[in-house]
Each structure stands twice: as C-alpha cells, then as structure tokens.
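Lab meeting, action items carried over

1. Structure of the two-component assembly. Owner: GW. Status: complete.
Input record:
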Amino acid sequence: MNVNQQWRHGALMVFRRNFLSWVKYYRSSILLNFGEPLTNLLALGFGLGAYVATMAGVPFVDFIGPGLLAVTAMNAVTFDMTFEAYDRLNENGIYQAMITAPLTVPQIVAGEYLWEAFRSLLYGSVFLLVLLLLGLVHSWWALVVPLPLLVTGIMFSGPALLVASRARNHEQLFYYFTLVITPMFMFSGVFFPIARLPVLIQDFIVLTPLFHVVNVVRALVLGHLSAGLVWDVVWILGYTVLFSWLPIRSLRRRLTG
Amino acid sequence: MAEVIVAENLIKRYGNFEAVHGIDFSVSEGACFGLLGPNGAGKSTTIRMICCLAEISGGRLSVLGHDAHPGNLMIKRQLGVVSQEDYLDPSLTVRENVELHGRFYGMGYRQAKIRAQDLLVFLQLEDKGREQVRSLSGGMRRRAVIARALMGTPRILILDEPTTGLDPQARLLVWSKIRELKQEGVTILLTTHYMDEAQRLADDLVVIDHGRILERGTPDDLIARVVGTDCLEIAECDPSFGQTLVERIQPLGIISDWQGDSLMLFSSDMDPVLAQLQKEKWLPAQYYRRRASLEDVFLRLTGRDLRE
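Predicted assembly:
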C-alpha cells in the first residue's frame, strides 16, 4: 500500500469499528432514532394537520414530512457525535486505543465522518420509506435525497464532535442540544415557512445549516425544484468543508497532549 | 547490541510544570528495560513521549532511529503498546478487539484473522474470543490487551504497569509470556510498581523520581551498589532503640533505613555486624535476615513519603 492507500485504509477501519459496534444494537438504535420524528409526523401532521389544512400551498403533513426527514438525519448524526463520541473519548478509550496504533487524529476524524455520512444516509432513507408508505412522496426526484443526506451527515458531524471533545461531562452536551439543535429544529422551516418572521430573524436563519437541508429535501420530495436550490447546495457544501476542520485541533490536544 | 531507544537530556513541560527534567537513558535491542518510580515520577510522561503521543519539550528522543514526535508513524508502526488503562472496546468481542487493532496497523482481513487466532492461543484466550470484553476477569483483560498490542508484530513492546490489579496466578502467566516474547527478540520497555516484577523481568533499569534519574543498572548491580546484598530486618523496632543500635554499629559501614516501623540494616555481609551485636548484647530478640531486594533499593532511593 502506498501512503494514500494506507491513510484511507486507516480511516476505513475507524468506520469498521463503528459498524461492528452498531450491528450489535441496530434494532434498538433504529427504534430510538425513529420514535421521535415519527411521533412528530403522526401527531403534528395528522393531528394538527386536521386544523391547519395547508402550509405554503401543500397539505400540512406533506409540508412537514420532508422537514422531519432532514431533522432525523441531523439528530442521528448529532446524537452519535456527541454522546457516543464523548464516551469513545472519555469512558471507553476507543480513540486512545486507535491513536496508540498507527492512526492519526485526521484519520480518526475522517473515519467518524464517513460513519456519520452512512448513518445520515441510512436513517434518512428509512424515513423516506416511511413517507413513501404514507403517500407523502410526490416526485421521482426523491430518489436523489440520499445525496444531500450523505453530505449533511458530514456537515453536522464537525461541530458535534468539537463539542464532544471539549465537554467535561454529559450535562454539557445537553447545552448543544438546547442552544443549537432544538432552536434549529423549531425555526429552520420544518413546520412553517420562515417568510413571515421578522426580516432580521430570517437573515439569521439563512445562516444556519439545517434550513438549507430542509429546503433541498422538501424540494426533492415534493418535486418543487427551483433555481434557488443551487444556493442551498452551495451553503451546505461550504459549511461541510468549513465545519469538518473544527474538531481536529481539540481532539489532537486531548489525545496527544 | 544496537540501541533502539535513546533519550538525551529529555525534557517535558506542561505549562510551568516540568514533569521530566532532562533524563538520559538508552535501551538495547532485545533487552527488557525497566522504568521504575513512584506515582508522579514522570514514568508515564516518558512512555507517552516514546509512544509518539506527546511532544517532547527539549533534548532528544530517538526511537528505532527516528525522532519521536506525535504522529510519527514510522515509529508507531513498530511499537506495541499495553497502556495502563485497558482501552478495550466494550461493544466488541475479544476477537474483534484484537483483529480490529491489527487492521489499524494496515493488515488485511484474512491476515488479521490468522494472527489474532495465533495470539489468542499464545495468551491462552482461545476460548474467550467470542465473549464480550465486559465479561472478562482482570487477568484475561490484560492478556487481551497484550494480544492486541502484539498484532502489529512490534519490535518494541511497551508495558505500562502490565500486572497492576492482577492476582498472583494471572501475574505469573503474564510474566511467562513476557519472557517468551523476550526470547523471540522483542525489546521490552516495562514500567511497574512491583519491584519483584522488575527484579524478575528487567535486564537493565532506571529509577526515576521527580522527573530525574536517581540510579541505573541491572537489578543485582543496583542492590549491591545502593544497599548491599545482605539485610537484617528488625520488625516493630522501638525508634530510640533503633537509633542507638545504628550508632553503635555505624563504624562497620552499614546502611540503615526505616521502612514503616521496621528498621533495615544493609551491608554486603552482615556476619561481622551480628557478631558485634551479639558480643555487646545488643542483638534484638527478634530479627530476620534476608537478601536485600530491589524494593529496598527503591525505598532507599525514593524515600518513604506517601505520594498521593
């Protein structure tokens, strides 16, 4: 193997570690990752949807379905890269064992991103299947959804892994959910279009990553494609590149300090 | 013999705290080298630098001909590390843990499978391969960690307190495996709190404390040089009695040391001392004569103060 092949092999083995671990509890893992979004979809979509007939010109449940798909992918990645990564670093010494073997911090991080891309793809695609069974998929463009899922899996990993590598205990991880993930979940156009919010808040929301994922996924599932989506894609790609560097320094300090 | 680890004036600082103050030592290929010292002496810091897990702050550290610095894969590929903490993956089986580690070293699927099987047999864990790590006893966990560390066929095996917390049977098994590895030509770097372990395994050792090397040599050499081979141990000795006794026999050139409330008298030969004490009727009713051990050397060098 040449140097590049060796590098890739190492990162792939980090992915493999997560996969071997995941296959042992995937049933409960899938249940945990779907309980909440599915409850949201059924309760809000069909319950609240009985009162709120349409949203932005489509039935309410059709509107929130793709939004919740994006949220499912974000949460699947974020939970793993916060609580699980925290344990890998602080409780079980998984990263420590990797770093004493000839793996480097960037390889570990790359392997983790690869794994989160897979999780995002998997959990997002299963949710897409649920939407299909409920008759909420309206376009063949939905077949393209896995592509943005792969990228956003990586995008949401960087900040979460940074938080995990700096947190001193589990409690501190909740701050990330309370202050970042939940507000994004509520205000990124999952449940309502942001058009009627004050302009200043709209401008701020455009700067957050989930908003763009929701736009892309909704457009693909409903078949409402427009030129504006190119901007969403550019934001997503930009954030992915920018965020992916975030945890490296902090992890390096933790593992080779 | 070639020297595989060379430290020259090696320094490690954490902020203003200097954990390692310019130490010099070298490890010969194929030897078992002991790094001894109380908690906080700088052993683990030194080990971390050798394993390329911590930047050196000064001096020089060469491992297998390469300068050690974090991420130096040229070195790391040739090391096997048994760290103080087990760091076994609790979500994987024993076999998966061992195989996966080999793959971190770049091995292919089949190659890792075969080597893992050989090592599980070598460490008498072949029946435990399918078990979750959680269900293992302390001794089995340690053996699993050693198997894991050997996956990359290391030239240097680093054992950081390999038998801490093990029962005597488990320690004997680990020791015999370490000896077998040494016979195969693997260089071993050992840190331990157990002086009997160092005495049995190490060809050469240094005692470090407060980041400095206090003594170096072979175990026998250190015993002869630092305390003398012959020891008279007076248990539960009255301090003033002990004091006077030591003064009376001082001209005979003995070394005395209190270990708790026991008085130790050391010399290369205690016969003349015993004879004189007998003559002067100063011989205590109860005493115990034994060979001096590395533990005596260690306590003499590092003092009796509790470290934590």
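2. GW to write a short summary for the group page. Key points so far: The first strand of chain B starts at residue 3 and ends at 14. DSSP finds eleven helices and 14 strands in chain B.
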